Amino acid sequence: MAHSVHERSVIVAGIGTEVGKTVVSAILCELLGGHYWKPIASGADDGPAESVSVARLVRNGVDRVFSERYLLRKSLSPHAAAAIDGVEVSLDEFTLPICEKPLVVELAGGLMVPLSDTATNVDLIRRLGLPVVVVSRHYLGSINHTLLTLEALRYYEIPVRGIIFNGDELPDSERIISQLSDVHIIGRVPDLGDVSAERVGEFAQSCGWGL
Pick from 162, 95, 78: which is nearest to 129 by CA? Predict the structure, then answer.
């Protein structure tokens, strides 16, 4: 469970893949003046891990990013990637890093992504004991995916800090999601162009999000 040092810490969960969790996580790190941790990541064979990206997008990133507990080679669901690597993901291996500032934890994929034959990201969230920020992006079907994600969090009695929309604005979709879910909209990240530490820092300073 979370300790007092993690009172402002959050877990960043997406409604699916490629919705912008990593950029949002970097912004939250700057906004909170905190640290970043992705407990499990896959796809190391295909390029730098998200932890490397975030280290480049936040000030003094090398000192603010914790290493993954599991870094898997293939771009697959963690349970499948772990099997290829000959390891088994165990919830007992996940403990919040010790730090003196808020922690931003990025999940690998959505809530129901399997980490092993017996555990999903939901189980990891419950083990870590932090509230969730849901990242959504507008596309055909995203209202359904966002509401299903929020409903699952409610079902499992996991606290939700709010929703962050990433990408182009779509006011009616954002309104209906908030209305039907009764979940607070924290804000929206516009297209930042070529994402850089400077752009992330500028946006974090100007966004005015309440967390």
Answer: 95
Q: Are the beta carbons of 104 and 10 closer than 8 angstroms?
A: yes
> 171: which residues sit within 8 A by CB, 6+ positions away?
none
Specify whether domain 4-206 bears CATH 3.40.50.620: no
The overall longest dimension of the chain from CA atoms, in Å, is: 46
Tokens linked to 192: 């930042």
What is the model's pTM?
Answer: 0.93
- Give the active site residues: 38
Distances (CA, A) of 42 to 52, 99, 134, 140, 203: 13, 25, 20, 26, 28
Per-residue model confidence as pLDDT tens digits over 118-155 = 999 999 999 999 999 999 999 999 999 999 999 999 99
* CA–CA gap between residue 63 and residue 61 (Å, rounded): 5
User: In the chain, which residue ranges form alpha helices assigned H by DSSP?
Assistant: 21-32, 50-57, 78-85, 121-128, 142-155, 171-181, 197-206
Backbone angles phi, psi at 133, to 5 degrees: -105, 125
**pLDDT-above-70 percentage for the chain:** 97
